[in-house]
Amino acid sequence: MHxxxxxxxxxxxSLSNRQRFLRRAxxxxxxxxxxxxxxxRIRDVADGERIVIxxxxxxxxxFHHDPVTGHQDGVATGNKTFREGDRIPRPGxxxxxxxxxxxxxxxxxxxxxxxxxxREEFLDIFLEDLELPDLMKKSVSRLENTxxxxxxxxxxxxxxxxxxxxxxxxxxxxxxxxxxxxxxxxDALRAEIADLERTAPDSRKLDELRIRLGLLERxxxxxxxxxxxxxxxxxxxxxxxxxxxxxxxxxxxxxxSMSEAMKDLAKxxxxxxxxxxxxxxxxxxxxxxxxxxxxEEVDEDTFFYSRETGGTVVSTALVEMRRVIAxxxxxxxxxxxxxQASDGDNLTADGPEVAAILARDILPITQYFAYVEVSGxxxxxxxxxxxxxxxxxxxxxSHDNFAARRVAGRGDIYPVFxxxxxxxxxxx
Amino acid sequence: MCSALTPAADAALLFADPDWSYDxxxxxxxxxEEIAVGELGLDVYPNQIEVITAEQMLDAYASIGMPxxxxxxxxxxxxxxxxxxxxxxxxxxxxxxxxxxxxxISYIMEDNxxxxxxxxxxxxxxxxxxxxxxxxxxxxxxDAEAILDxxxxxxxxxxxxxxxxxARAVERVLDAAHSLMDYGVNRYQRxxxxxxxxxxxxxxxxxxxxEKSYSDLWQRTNPVDAGPERDGDGGDQPPHPAExxxxxxxxxxxxxEKMAPRLxxxxxxxxxxxxxxAQYFYPQKQTKVMNEGCATYVHYRVLxxxxxxxxxxxxxxxEFLHSHSSVIFQPDFDDQRYSGINPYALGFEMMTDIQRIxxxxxxxxxxxxxxxxxxGDAMGTLRDAWANxxxxxxxxxxxxxxxxxxxxxxxxxxxxDDPEYLVEAIHxxxxxxxxxxxxxxxxxxxxxxxxxxxxxxxLDGDRTLVLRHEVIGGRLLDREDATAVLQHVADLWGYPVAxxxxxxxxxxxxxxxxxxxxxD
Lengths: 428, 520
Fold this sequence. Notes:
Chain A is α/β, with parallel strands linked by helices and 428 residues long. Chain A has 15 helices and 13 strands. Helices cover 42% and strands 20% of the residues of chain A. The longest helix of chain A has 21 residues. Among the domains of chain B are: 155 residues, no CATH class; 120 residues, no CATH class; 63 residues. In chain B, helix 7 packs across helix 8 and helix 7 packs antiparallel against helix 12. In chain B, strand 8 and strand 9 form a beta hairpin. Helices cover 52% and strands 10% of the residues of chain B. The interface between A and B is large, with 67 and 102 residues.
């Protein structure tokens, strides 16, 4: 009999099959990811998730009997009260009981198929859906870089990391503790013996000294100068790059003119922004501010899902943002990002106020201010500029940290980020 | 130093530590071998035990237990499902996977405790191993010596095909072949056929002989018989291609491989690979109850014997009994957990019952099993059963009233439109035989899989391939899946495919499926 340890064999033999499977299910998986990301919170966007996809295209058909046709018979166990000739109700197809036998024995009765995507796989598909170029995808889904930092000593490591000082110190203390004779001691003894050999070759002391020398030499041999247990290695710990914190302020117009599709687009924009910011900063806070003719800070669910009626006064949101930042996020400790999504409606009279707050209070303290104007379809892009657009447009040229984009579909979201994250602008 | 302190009885234990070690596994293996081979008289292939991690176990699951498998998305799907269930904790992993090969490879998981490893070794390395080596279905149909080499060949062949013809093309052929896997099996030993080459050779030889011995005289005195001479392998005309595989043919994959008019050679080889694998697993499909029963019975006997010999501690026995009893758990029909009859439970129960009948028969047993009741040779009887039966015949032969009472079996039936089931038989004198017969039929693959054959190929006409389903008891095919499979058949065949469902008792055509044209 042989026992073979296969644990060291390459793991993940099924990985290529998994990729084949994902490729095969691409359309369904993309759809499922799209749905999942619409449901999940911005902060969770990058986690892997269990997704359920319909099985069309993934079915493995076989010839099998249709369970509702023909004469059925079979044997079951656990009879308690039945007698021959009894009639018992027949459960619906596949509804436990006896139906389970026929329903699941042949064919796959399931019409949905659930499994878990890893974080990378999820992001891959999520980002692909946004039509990001490959380079950008790579940089977003890349895991956080860490830097090795010295932290103490270890008993194992690579030879290049041996800490000589610590090793020799251990060696010394061990030699002292075990009373390994030093070279000086031995030399002195040898000299004394040589001396005696010349002066009194037959003396008893000479014999004693020789025995003693033998003893010490044996001890020297048996207690090594440097023992593997003395060796210490410098230990390095992977430390994430310096933690900086950022706050992302999401502002959205929630008045009746924003449709669900618009909000979904806005949400994707916020998610992507979060991903980018999260890549740069270890700790990212998100603040949600919604506004109609008045603005308030809310939680994420309220932000995306509750409806509010009213007019549209954008400046209220900016004022609210100014207040939140002043109260909780001192500029010296926080990098501030602002993202605003709106359909472009604004009270005409509010225009100068918006421009003033933006120029005076907001832009000087934010790393970046991104404005997306969502519109329902391509047709809308052709109409004349919206109120808000007319106010914001000049800032895009006058300020480096301001970007305004119009977004009609998922594919339009990315270009905003190209501006935001092109290398020459990475001046944080 | 420690052994001096422990009581003398424990000194003989195979292992005291719950964690396993190579030494302990080796010691345990030797002790089990002594019991299994020495006392129970099992006959096994040499064993090879491989330690793997949980993740590798999931991998092995996904490739239907084979250590080597070609790549296909369905295995990835399988893996994803298993992984999800495993992560959710909805399903534990099997403790072991065993491969019918020589040497017999058993996988054991690194997380198992030593008692579990002992259980697994007895179960897989001796129980299953004995069954693989001795059951006549396996002896007749699978080649344990060659399977691993063959899988290696299959894997590299398919990988090469993917390089040469593109992954997509290979995937399509595999999809099609997998959908016909149940119809890629030879159920009967095939008559050795004369290959086309040797036919040709024979025809040439004959011609040469005729030329050599040509005599004008014969022609005049003995005019050539005008009747067609068609006795299969003797004719001097080149055989009609349709004769190479005579119809009807139930091995659809085989038929397509040999006869599909426009199939490229590499695709034929792929079909052949899938067919070989289907054939390899065919006996396992027919012997689930027996195979698992045999392994469970063996581990139960072996571990109890180890305990008797004071080689296994009480704690070890309790641990073993805990997993043993969950393996052979049979929920009642009205239980949430019920999903048919547990093959482990049925097999184990029947085999312990055979032991009882051989050793301590009751009057009833003497009446039902006159041949074996009280013969005192339980192991001999069991070994004989393991060697010569499959599930269907085993149940038909050996399911005793005791076991039926123990499981409280009852038989139900219903017509297609009945709102209710009729209880046809319960575990009483009147019902035993009917229950037994009905249960045996459930394990008859011939009845479980629809009986579909190739009946016409029209090679001289429009080349429409006609499949026929012989319907038993009015059970028709699932229409949607049948259409999907037909599409695969049409893609391989290259011409239209039709399917008709005909009543086996001669009541005419019940349903005709739409002809399916091949996709490009």
